[in-house]
Design a protein that fits this description.
With 361 residues, the chain is mainly alpha-helical. The protein has a two-stranded parallel ribbon. α1 packs antiparallel against α2 and α3 packs antiparallel against α4. The protein is elongated, with a radius of gyration of 49 Å.
């Protein structure tokens, strides 16, 4: 990176065109920059191409086919390099020879006489002076020059038009072309009419005509306009927007997995229900064709509800696979402190599971 950079800090008027560019020179610790000032805008740099003009491709193919020679030796690396250079040279020269050179038509700037250019320069100078000072006398001089310049431009336009009309003759057809151009009928935009036939001249009445036309044109189909459809759309529009997206469907096994995964040290919420209360433990041992279900919970009522939920799952599974439950052999036992109440007894599809009298709490 260079240690020294050329920096230009100037206040350049707008009528001057500037262009800064880097000078790629071999300097050890200096990166020179060139600032160009010009009264005319800089020339536009065209994109890099072989030719800046349109190409006659038929002529290009003909010239390239004439210059191309296929009888070349390609045995050594130098032969290949020479053949490649020859092909590139042929393509470039063919492109340059087949370019269609179009002359540039530069429109000359409008010529103003000196007695008008001088007031324009004085007006610009007085305008700058008034913008800086804001004095009333400077504004007065500026307004005087503005009015004088307007009168001079009006007289110049009148003289130019008079000279133009004096040159029109019927020999070269200029008179008839100008007459046809002046008498050309320009179709005005159509004026809208109200329902009573009067002209809509006010913007509000025109807007009402357009709104009525669009409302009568864009109508739904007849089979869509029903009372049920209208009520359904109105209820949907009137209903408040949901504050959150709808809940995702879940299975009971997912709820059981979340409850089992919940940490027992988690603090209870505002309802003071801890994770130990909502975290059941199931034990399903099988003895031949018998099944025992065991669940634990600090609350006996919750333990009974867990047993009932598991019995509902078993009921649906047995019903799917065609297994019959012997309800007379089903018993319910509660192990806890003296006087514990288990609430409602678990139920099977057609009967209630009673408490085993042989068990002691």
């Amino acid at each position: 990176m260079p240690d020294i950079l050329d920096i230009f800090v100037t206040k350049i008027p707008r009528n001057l065109h500037t262009q800064a560019s880097n000078l790629i020179d071999h300097c050890s610790d200096h990166s020179p920059v060139m600032l160009s000032l010009d009264c005319l805008p800089p020339d536009k740099i065209n994109a890099s191409a072989l030719s800046q003009f349109p190409t006659d491709w038929d002529k290009f193919n003909k010239i390239l086919s004439e210059k191309t020679c296929l009888k070349l030796l390609l045995k050594t690396p130098s032969d290949i390099d020479n053949a490649v250079n020859l092909l590139i040279t042929n393509i470039q020269t063919s492109m340059w020879d087949s370019a269609k050179i179009i002359p540039l038509h530069i429109k000359p700037p409008p010529h103003l006489p000196s007695y008008i250019q001088t007031p324009i320069l004085r007006k610009r100078r007085d305008h700058v002076i008034w913008q800086r000072s804001r004095y009333p006398i400077d504004k007065f001089h500026y307004n005087v020059l503005t009015q004088k310049l307007k009168r001079l431009l009006t007289n110049l336009k009148s003289e130019s038009y008079a000279n133009y009309t004096s040159t029109l003759t019927g020999i070269n057809g200029s008179l008839w072309k100008t007459r046809r151009k002046l008498l050309r009928i320009h179709n005005p935009p159509p004026i809208l009419r109200n329902v009573d036939g009067s002209w809509a001249l006010i913007e509000q009445s025109q807007a009402d005509i357009f709104s009525n036309h669009f409302s009568n044109t864009f109508q739904p189909h007849d089979n869509i306009i029903t009372i049920t459809k209208i009520q359904e759309v109105e209820s949907y529009l009137i209903s408040p927007l949901p504050m959150y997206p709808p809940s995702r469907a879940f299975r009971p096994s997912e709820v059981e997995f979340i409850l089992k995964k919940n940490s027992p040290k988690k603090a209870p919420g505002f309802d003071l229900i801890s994770s130990e209360v909502v975290k059941p433990t199931y034990l399903n041992p099988y003895f031949a064709d018998d099944k025992a279900i065991l669940t634990t919970s600090p609350d006996p009522i919750l333990a009974s509800s867990y047993i009932q939920n598991h019995l509902n799952f078993l009921e649906s599974w047995y019903k799917t696979w065609g297994v019959k439950i012997n309800e007379t052999k089903s018993m319910h036992g509660l192990f806890g402190f003296m006087g514990s109440n288990c609430g409602a007894l678990p139920k099977l599809p057609t009967s209630t599971i009673f408490k085993d009298s042989n068990l002691k709490p």
